[in-house]
Amino acid sequence: MTKRSTFTILFAFAYGFLLLSPVVVHADTMTLKLISVGGQQSGPDYVYPYNFSFDGSTDLTPLMCISYENAINFGETWTATMVPVSGTELYVEAAYILAQAAAPGASPNTIAVAQWANWELFDPNDSKLLANLPSGYQPQINTLLAQAAPFAANNINTTDFPNIDIFIPIDGTQNQGGYPQIFVGDPTSPLFGGDNDPLGTPEPSSLILLGSGLLGLAAFLYRGRRYN
Questions:
Q1: CA-CA distance, 87 to 148, in Å (whole number)?
Q2: pTM of the predicted protein model
Q3: What is the three-class DSSP state of 165?
């Protein structure tokens, strides 16, 4: 095979990798679509995770609901503003509580208690929430809230949750009635794709690095061909 042929093939592969590699952008707003839930119910309600498609992506990203009163439906879409948790005490508390449920190996009880704790944090003394709260949860919720509050107060600009955001709906953008709920979660950690893809799909950064490396090799061969 000639150097020119090798250069052409490498360039084509490199361009393909770079073109097809999805690049994650930490945008200010995005369109959310509720696809599914994790399947665990606590009382009459589903708890974390709520699985969303972002901007039409086929990947699903798990988020935790933090507003109890508002209702959403499967297939519902809306535009949300992403707000970093760092700098706002209440949001840091929400991230701290979410981290308990999202930790590897978290038990169903831990997940449910964390979900109800965040609901109670954002909708305190809500009569409907208190009526539906499963028996025996309140002492555990109180303990978790008592841990989250001082952590947030002492770490308001924490770097412990660099990728966790609050997703605040923009009124009037929903395609179904009512006002969507507010969610908290990590938009960079999809359920499918990257490290969690059961088919082993490479991470976007890996594809970009591979494409860049192939371009570099193609350029080296091209320069060699010119000067020979």
A1: 15
A2: 0.72
A3: strand
